[in-house]
Amino acid sequence: MRRYVIIGAGAIGATVAAQLTLAGIPAVLIARGENGAVLRRDGLLFVRHEGERRVALDVASGPDEVDLEKGDVLVLATKSQDTERALQDWAHRPVRGAETVPILTLQNGLDNERTALRRFPLVLGAVVWLPASHLAPGEVVARAKPVTGAFWIGRYPSGHSPVADDVAADLRAAGFHAGTVPDIVSWKAAKLLSNLVNALDALYAPSDLRDQAAEALRAEGRRALEAHGIEPATLIEEAAEVRADVVASDIPGRPVQHSSTWQSLARAGSVETDHLNGEIVLLARLAGLEAPLNEAVQRRIARAAREGVAAGSLTDEDLKRDLGY
């Protein structure tokens, strides 16, 4: 049986650790700071529609507390801005019975897998559909029912790996929808387009103008991807078979679900927009193009994080000014 060493104890990492643990599949969750202290002391308060439960997790603070073995899978569940530091910590560690271990990235954006491939020969990327939030230490609210979430996994940059099949099978045993795809970059590109609106959700109150801005951001994104020959998967159509089982709705008494970027801004943490909207800006610049709307959003949320702007507190007037509407 494989063991999963999950680096990052936010909404995604903690949910995956909890579901694997409840299914009897070995998992170690890497958590630091106050969140790690609470998880060690009290376990995870795991909130779902059917109720709350405390899940006792195997928690470590870093690689010095984990002896890697053949058969282990590293799972990178940090925000993209923390990828380089995490890889520096975990790459080239001794592994009992093997030269190295595979790594699975449960992250948004297009750059994490490429960064991991510098250090790990087998990199699995994933598109993650898991409506969950982490706003308090030691607590995660998972809002989908009856199934907690879904994963589409593939070898990076393309192709098939038996390890991906094994990982998908374990995730299914842990109560997720999970399958494999041969063209993970295409799937990740489709998810990136959907994630371009995260910053809008984090900054501005809902409105028709915000919806118009979201479509404009995606249009810039599609042009930038096309310039590099990247054709996004038809994610919504391909995912249709799981939509009936992964249905997100708010849980009474718990905060309304927002994007991961909204959650980061609400926690006064760093935001990953440089790897979402910023990825589109980078691709555009590399192709001799511009992506001015994504660039404006990228700059604005960086300023909001620096100044401690409350999540979702800006108005249409702010949006007009910030994006030059």
In short:
With 325 residues, this protein is an alpha/beta fold.
Notes on the structure:
This protein is of the alpha/beta class and 325 residues long. It folds into two domains: 3-182, Rossmann fold (3-Layer(aba) Sandwich); 187-232 and 253-323, Orthogonal Bundle (N-(1-d-carboxylethyl)-l-norvaline Dehydrogenase, domain 2). 42% of the residues lie in helices and 20% in strands. The chain contains 14 helices and 16 strands. The chain has helices at 11-22, 33-42, 83-90, 112-117, 162-173, 184-195, 198-203, 208-227, 235-238, 240-243, 260-266, 277-286, 292-307, 316-323, and strands spanning 3-7, 27-30, 44-48, 51-55, 58-60, 68-69, 72-76, 95-96, 103-105, 123-129, 132-136, 139-142, 144-146, 150-155, 177-180, 246-248. Strands 5-2-1-7-9-10-14-15 form an eight-stranded mixed β-sheet. A four-stranded mixed β-sheet has the order 4-3-12-11. Helix 8 packs parallel to helix 12 and helix 12 (277-286) crosses helix 13 (292-307). The chain is globular, with a radius of gyration of 19 Å. The termini are far apart.
SSE blueprint and pairings:
Elements: E1 3-7, H1 11-22, E2 27-30, H2 33-42, E3 44-48, E4 51-55, E5 58-60, E6 68-69, E7 72-76, H3 83-90, E8 95-96, E9 103-105, H4 112-117, E10 123-129, E11 132-136, E12 139-142, E13 144-146, E14 150-155, H5 162-173, E15 177-180, H6 184-195, H7 198-203, H8 208-227, H9 235-238, H10 240-243, E16 246-248, H11 260-266, H12 277-286, H13 292-307, H14 316-323
